[in-house]
Amino acid sequence: MRHAEAGVDWVAPSAIAKGQVKAIRKALDKNGLPKVKILGYSAKFASNFYGPFRNAANSAPAFGDRSAYQLDYSKASQALDEIETDIKEGADMVMVKPALSYLDIIKEAKTKFDYPTAAYNVSGEYAFVKYGAKQGLWNEREMVKEIITSIKRAGADFIISYHAKDIAKWQK
Asked: Could you tell me what percentage of the chain is helix, strand and coil, using 3-state DSSP and rounding each to the nearest 5?
């Protein structure tokens, strides 16, 4: 709530907890902040592609894993159910995270719901590209263009990516 009161345009709850979007929408509206938008981390998969971020932030679980609140990568229908729930609860945009291994989910969500959809191209996907380019396996700029194009082609209206600074630099 403090972020919204401070003037943010969007809030993006990442825990994918049951009912969180509904609770946040209700609290925002109750507190006179109906214009603050919600980006739901609707289909956030339990993924190995988060590894570089978790290592950098020292946020790897001390024990167990995050499967209790992140989606099993094999359950596409559950991802679509979570997206639909966030839409019904008042999310202004839904997100699929990570992007590359879930292009099919992005496509299905866009086709089924025709709703503003974001895709998060995460740290492991970024590290994969950087490492391959450093090893001379591919041209980094062309690989990034191909990846971002595939995410857009799958149906993402917005793409969140660690490559953003490089893309901006290349556009100059």
From this structure: 50, 15, 35
